[in-house]
Amino acid sequence: MSRLHLTFGCVKSTLAGTLDTAPGVNGLLLVSGGNELRSGAFSGQAALAARIADAGFPVFRFDRRGVGDSGGENRGFRNSRAEIHSALAAFRAIAPQVERVVGFGNCDAASALMLGAGIECDALVLSNPWAIEHDDVALPPIAIRARYAEKLRNPREIVRLLTGGVNFGKLAKGLLQAGRSKVGPSTLAGELTAGLAQYHGPVRILLAMADRTAQAFAANWDVDDPRVVRCEGAGHAWVEPHAREFLDRHLLEVLRG
Known about the structure:
Blueprint: E1 3-10, E2 13-20, E3 26-31, H1 44-54, E4 59-62, H2 81-94, E5 100-106, H3 108-115, E6 123-127, H4 141-152, H5 155-162, H6 168-178, H7 187-197, E7 203-208, H8 212-219, E8 228-231, H9 241-256
Parallel strand pairs: 3-4, 3-5, 5-6, 6-7, 7-8
Antiparallel strand pairs: 1-2, 2-4
């Protein structure tokens, strides 16, 4: 495996990309979420790319417009279709043996792939999709309950509660919200559902159930969707050893087809 750095065009901008080479005819297009660099937090995506390439599958990563080493204006995940499309074309050009591309994104990168109906990827692995509206003031009840359960396991939070360091008005509001059985689906969740309905390739949705983003998505999604796979005790970035193994295993399963 070798790592190649390159640039490619997107509309009127120049984007930066990285290819981890491997001989496989199936490849992984790794889409970054938020304002995250293509290397990922603490180089997590770079490490993931190396592991997948070592298993025989080439991996292409890139910085979205206005992020990291890429030029242009950052227009957010809702407007990132052009970048993903250009990255896919660049991947196929620099690794011409690749016949099948699996698109992978975490958080709003997963949402971007869903909104774009897969953006010509042959298969999708969607991790902890972002389904929360920007103006939402409350997390879904499942996420609020998980937050309070976490606090009750923390001795410092118990001390704060007993010594008056807790805003009881805010606490009461939170407990009321946590007691609700469900909330209505967000507008964004509806858009994600509609976008993914237009995609006809294989899809796997991975949810890290210690992550509030995943909890919020689960609260807005069909509980019987067979494409959803949950990993208990996993955080948003899949850094826990069992979570990292879970993520790698599912990516490799989809890449092997």
